[in-house]
Amino acid sequence: MTALFRRIVPVREGEEAPMLLATAYGFAIFLGYYMLRPVRDEISAADRGNLQVLWTAVFLVMLIAVPLYSMLVARYSRARFIPIANRFFAFNLLLFFGALYLLPASARPWIDRVFYVWTSMFALFVVTVFWGFVADLFRNDQARRLFGFIAVGSSLGGIAGSLVTALLAESVPVFMLLLIAILPLEAAAWVAGALHRYSARATTTLNREGPELIGGTAWSGISTVFRSPYLRTIAGYLALMTFASTILYFQQAYLLSDAFADRGVRTTILARMDLAVNALTIGTQGFIAAHVIRRFGLGVTLAIVPAIALIGFGTLGVYPLLAVLVVAQVLYRSFRYALAKPAREVLFTVVGREERYKSKAFIDAAVYRGGDLVSGWIYAGLAYVGLSVGAIALVATPMAALWVAMAIVLGRREEAMRAEERTDPPGAATPARA
């Protein structure tokens, strides 16, 4: 069985335990997130006229949150700031539970909006901390082989969270889901601690954290992004991805709201879409992603999702139907998680630790939500001048083509960084090359 497993998943001796721990960590994080995601997305359908305003608020909150997170990273070791981050969000869920339980029903619309902003921040920071930690533990050659399987834990957690929400959304108050979601966040903090302790062993095959802190300032990780052509290309790739995702997200909100009036039904449909996405993702992540990366390289792997978006926008432009949107979303999101996500995280294994935690947080949070903000206002403007869902999809098609080209460029730059890393003597500084 071990030999068969190693033929399917290219794991080597000594890597099984940390790979499985990292997979369990991802499972716990995404279990909690996917219990909350349908609740957030239902709010967008119910309050669709204010989506661009909510996304503006998300971006402004991110501008404050990223430097605060960078200060935490600079002052504490990963063994401390990772549990702190997870438990901070768990405590916030307790506060939301208390507000929903104690405040009158008239306050619900504003609690929903605050929760929407908070969940968007939660989704990026908790996931960014997880993947930054994993990229800090595994070397580039390990990441190319193992990140696909590690991402399976995320999909399994997404399936479990989607199932819980789909089963409970129409039978229990929504605020009970918030309370239940605290449990996997606490479990994630414990698993992260176990993984850190494993990496500190003398016999480990992982990158061991040195005694020194990451250091720097609250702004140093941000300034590095603007100085580094490599990091700027990653940011550009992510910005185009957010544009495509935002257009599909707004079209989903509009078509779903027009088709169904009941909030419980909309939440159930969204949860079932999440379930389908994660079910389709698992096989590709666990057994295909590593082989696609090794055979075709990161550039081609990163270009697959933009190609799906290109086809999806073209089809939606001709047939602007909810059924077409559901198929496009499920395919887009499943391949985005199965192939683009592990491939994109491999990109951070050829840079330094400050870039893995601080610059990555800025790219994943501020750039991501900045792209959401700009794209949201673009969609609102196009809708305001009278463009239909189909027409807006056709407008987005050239941007998807540009995204394909940028993926190929990014793959070539990562290969160059990787080749340079192999020629460096031990202890050479990676950040200067970024």
In a nutshell, what does this entry contain?
The chain is mostly helical.
What tags apply to this protein structure?
single chain; disordered C terminus; 0% strand; Growth Hormone, Chain: A; mainly alpha; globular; 434 residues
CATH homologous superfamily descriptor = MFS general substrate transporter like domains
Q: What is the H-and-E element order?
A: HHHHHHHHHHHHHHH
The low-confidence parts are 425-433
- First and last CA, distance: 41 Å
Which sheet architecture does the biggest sheet show?
none
What is the CATH C level class, in words?
Mainly Alpha
Count of the separate structural domains: 1
What is the helical fraction, as a range of percent?
over 70%
CATH fold call? Growth Hormone, Chain: A
The CATH architecture category equals Up-down Bundle
- The assigned structural class equals mainly alpha
Strand content range: under 5%
Molecular shape: globular
Number of strands: 0
Structural summary, described in words:
There is one protein chain. 82% of the residues lie in helices and 0% in strands. The protein is mainly α. Helix 6 packs antiparallel against helix 11 (263-287) and helix 12 runs antiparallel to helix 15 (389-423).
Please write out the topology.
Layout (H helix, E strand, L loop, with lengths): L1 H7 L7 H31 L4 H25 L2 H25 L5 H30 L2 H29 L5 H7 L1 H18 L20 H8 L1 H31 L3 H25 L1 H30 L3 H25 L6 H32 L4 H35 L11
Helix pairs in contact: 2-5, 2-6, 2-7, 2-8, 2-10, 2-11, 3-5, 3-14, 4-5, 4-7, 4-8, 5-14, 6-11, 6-12, 6-13, 9-10, 9-14, 10-13, 10-14, 10-15, 11-13, 12-13, 12-15
